[in-house]
């Protein structure tokens, strides 16, 4: 196997380069390449992995060219610089490092708050300019003041903890914050309106979504206490910058500290130059410790995925641990092959897919297995599909996908049954993995079989009448088609029967036509796995 190749296109810590090298991955470190989108588009096709921070924009246009790319790793939290739907459609896993820079970013928010309270940057500039303006800078204490935290996840809760240590009262608005968690953190869970009305300082720690965009706008600011100070170290766009600028000018807002802006890099902004505004160029995560953390983490995660299939912190696929990956692997293969078996036999639109997991397999990562079934099922019809893109495509096509999980009801320790409902019929197929790790077909349409998936197979449905097997075998023999394995099964004597044959090499069309012409044969199909 040739070593996977990874491009680092942003300024990641060198620690990442070393990890990739140590894991046997070819790594190309071009820390400024992310800013040159044409160059990135030109070379992205050469890589299996792309490691980025925020300067690289992995747009649909660039991903179009990423024909080898399997994983994008964001050394950080926000993945708003990656077009996730485009990556998913191309089957590219997108992963981030959700905790590596949380403390550092929380510390930046606290630093911003204290700097605002005492106007440190302006006082510094004035002092160093030789002015000694002792009367100009009158700060406020933060002790006993109320801090309103909007978004109390990883970073918001660290900010809350530090603020409590500074003897502030902390109130938090976060629809996903449970009362128990709020109690554990020592914060008061409140509504957004309460934050606006009660807070002396407001700090934002949510992602930018349709719901959070301009969560602080002119109307919100109007409800706030006069003299409120606002800190945004989360994402540009959470605060309406024009509305805030007006409120700073009027004095209703006493200060604002921003690390993130609606447009970045922010070389000009309506907030620049206003009284008591502190700005930093998206430095929230910029400490040696955080950058080392996220670089190490992203490199390990990407290496794990490229080398073992283990998935951690993926935005668009369920996680699979390094322990789970080897156990899951044969079942992923089984799931994909069951899907492929049904997909190759399906000629009309699929309306519903039911996947039943029985026994030990029911305890595994069902979401990953279902994705594998769907990718096997859809690939014969839709081509370039993989486990990442298949669930999205199935949904787009209006397919209902049901997963059923139950204890073992058959002789098998693990059994996966796939039932595909089309506009015309329902077809089901079951499989298991034996101790040898090889996936087996054990049931087709209620007929028991015991067949491995050969790379080239012929599947025949026929009436169980004498003479068929001999004629079928002779047709193959006459055409010099060598039979590797031969599996037969039937419902009842004289009823529906099937033959599943593995052959050496592809099935010649003229042989398939002759088999189809046999009087007992209902359907014949060449299958490849
Ligand atoms: N400035 C930087 O350099 C920097 C560094 C790291 C992270 N960030 C950003 O900080 C933000 C927070 O990161 P995190 O790791 O704490 O994320 P997180 O997912 O742990 O927390 C986000 C919280 O926001 C809450 N939330 C979602 N919608 C909300 C809404 N409408 N109202 C209130 N709360 C809502 C969620 O429930 C969650 O608890 C992200 O936007 C991230 O990109 C910035
Ligand atoms: O990489 C950076 O410097 C910014 C990171 C930050 O915005 C994040 O979302 O993790």
TrEMBL record:
Pathway: Amino-acid biosynthesis; L-serine biosynthesis; L-serine from 3-phospho-D-glycerate: step 1/3. Its EC number is 1.1.1.95. Catalyzes the reversible oxidation of 3-phospho-D-glycerate to 3-phosphonooxypyruvate, the first step of the phosphorylated L-serine biosynthesis pathway. Also catalyzes the reversible oxidation of 2-hydroxyglutarate to 2-oxoglutarate. It comes from the Bacteria. GO terms for molecular function: NAD binding; phosphoglycerate dehydrogenase activity. NCBIfam families: PGDH. Belongs to the D-isomer specific 2-hydroxyacid dehydrogenase family. CDD domains: ACT_3PGDH-xct, PGDH_4. InterPro entries: ACT-like_dom_sf, ACT_dom, ASB_dom_sf, D-isomer_2_OHA_DH_cat_dom, D-isomer_DH_CS, D-isomer_DH_CS1, D-isomer_DH_NAD-bd, NAD(P)-bd_dom_sf. This is D-3-phosphoglycerate dehydrogenase. Residues 457-529 form the ACT domain. Keywords: Amino-acid biosynthesis, NAD, Oxidoreductase, Serine biosynthesis. Pfam families: 2-Hacid_dh, 2-Hacid_dh_C, ACT, PGDH_inter. GO terms for biological process: L-serine biosynthetic process. It catalyses: (2R)-3-phosphoglycerate + NAD(+) = 3-phosphooxypyruvate + NADH + H(+); (R)-2-hydroxyglutarate + NAD(+) = 2-oxoglutarate + NADH + H(+). It comes from Rhodopseudomonas palustris (strain ATCC BAA-98 / CGA009).
